[in-house]
Every structure is written in structure tokens, then in C-alpha cells.
Write a structure and sequence with these properties.
With 69 residues, the chain is α+β, with helices and mostly antiparallel strands. 28% of the residues lie in helices and 16% in strands. The longest helix has 13 residues.
Length: 69
């Protein structure tokens, strides 16, 4: 179960959620995930998020999917 990241771009207006580069299962839940795939919560990566960088490929796919949907 992946949950949207609660970070938003603010440049005078809210542009939507920032999509993380990947989701992962925490180290302490790996064995439970192997035993029952899909049973554990995924955590959003914060890779480069603290530097203000955005994963552009994932962000662009999200925006296009919103435009088409």
C-alpha cells in the first residue's frame, strides 16, 4: 500500500503532490513482506528531497496521467 507523499510544490499556488523516486519496505518488515507479498506498507524515498530536487520522470508521468484522466 503506497500513500501519496504529503509534500507540495508552492510557487504562488499548490501544484500537487511530489512523486518520490521509489517506495520501499522498511528493513524490519522485509521478512513479513517475503512471507506475504503486498502485506506491508511502503515508505516513500526521500532521496534528494532534502536538497529540493524532484524526480522529473515520475513527476512528469504523474502530471500526464492526471491530464489524461
Amino acid at each position: 500500500m503506497c500513500h501519496p507523499v504529503a509534500l507540495y510544490i508552492v510557487c504562488g499556488a499548490c501544484l500537487g503532490p511530489i512523486i518520490p523516486k521509489y517506495y520501499y519496505v522498511s528493513r524490519e518488515n522485509v521478512e513479513a513482506e517475503k512471507a506475504n507479498p503486498g502485506s506491508q506498507d511502503r515508505l516513500a524515498s526521500d532521496e534528494d528531497a532534502e536538497k529540493g530536487h524532484i524526480y522529473l520522470w515520475g513527476q512528469s508521468v504523474y502530471i500526464i496521467s492526471q491530464l489524461l484522466g
